[in-house]
Amino acid sequence: MKNYLKWTIVFFLLGVIAYLFSPSIKRLLAADGYLSARIALMYLSGTLGIILMSAAVLISARFSFINKLFGGLDKAYEVHKSTAALGFAFGLIHFLMSFSNRLMIKFNVIPEPAHSTNPLTGTILSFYKAGYAFLEPAFIVLIIIVAIAIIRKVPYHIFKYTHKIIPILYLQIALHAFTVPFRGGWVDTIGGYILQGMVIFGAIGAVFSLFNLTGIKHRYKGIISLKEKVTSDIIHIKVKLDNVENFNFSAGEFVFLKLSHSLEPHPFSVAGFNKENKELEFYIKESGDFTSKLYDKLADNSKVVVEGPYGEFNFSDTSKNQVWVAGGIGITPFLAKLNALAENKANISIDLIYSKIGDTPFDDMLKNMCEKTDVTLHMVDTQKEGLLTYSKIKEIAPNITSSSIWFCGPIGFRQAVFKGLKEDNIDLNLFHFDNFSFR
Hints:
With 439 residues, this protein is of the alpha/beta class. 50% of the residues lie in helices and 17% in strands. Helix 6 crosses helix 9.
């Protein structure tokens, strides 16, 4: 089972446990039909929805200990997406149940429910009412934002900017979720502690996101010290940092770059880091809305904010053999590792398989670096030899079944390799990759 599915199930079960240890479960079991059970069922959908949403919002704050827990920031974002989607689904069910119940009450189909076990007064009552103040508009706006996230044809920058509204919407929904247990008799129960605890954690994450505090401890100022085009669609840039104190970079990691012309940071693999010169090196392929305009908009000596480093793609494991598989611009993290090995050679066997189209600016560089570091290089020109398949990888590196595999390349290529490893019953925990699909 994939890691993000395991964690999504964990948070789902946490919601189930909260409900099972609440007064609502007794009301549900005692009900003799939907009409008598509807309030208890609304508590169920609401509990599952807010706990999963809270997990998603907390994860988006990029706390280091959470990233470590999930195996890297990219893996954490996979959990973020799955918990957000499932949380929204339960939230939508809760919203529709509430809306339909109000319609049935309005038209005298069902009586006004008597679900209040604890009449509220004073400050708690004020907060309870505030939790309902903008609840319905907030959820309607959330539905629109989720639609934007799902529709891939909507440009990334629109998705990103609309996504910034979510912390505000979440805080309104969270206030409602935090105060409802006072009315439903959940206070001082295990279920109430779990629900309100997750809401508090989610609110912390929302505040960090709202005030742009995500990754604040890992931000460094710098300038563009080099900008050049090495091919028609590959840019080579260097960023000189003002200060590298506490910048603990390991080859294979990535950073977010917030450039002077952009409101949003974007993730890029680091191709090299010269600590003495305080310079980070990048090779960037012009392939999307942002990168296709990058070279023209990037000015020499323009200011940059670097956030990171992030990721667990650090070539660190106990295997005596490693197989590196790179596709196209996915060679960049391997360049960083080869640079590191030039200073400190590995005592393991390494095969680097590079899938490329024709001649590339990395060919001679790789030959020289691999010769210096005792890494066995295999370059596969797909124009001449066809696509690099998993079967071809096994022919090139037959020891792959006893190796750890480090992959960076297109998603389709990665899925094909993953499928081959699975069919060969190879331990998939030995397959390492970074996933830059943050949408």
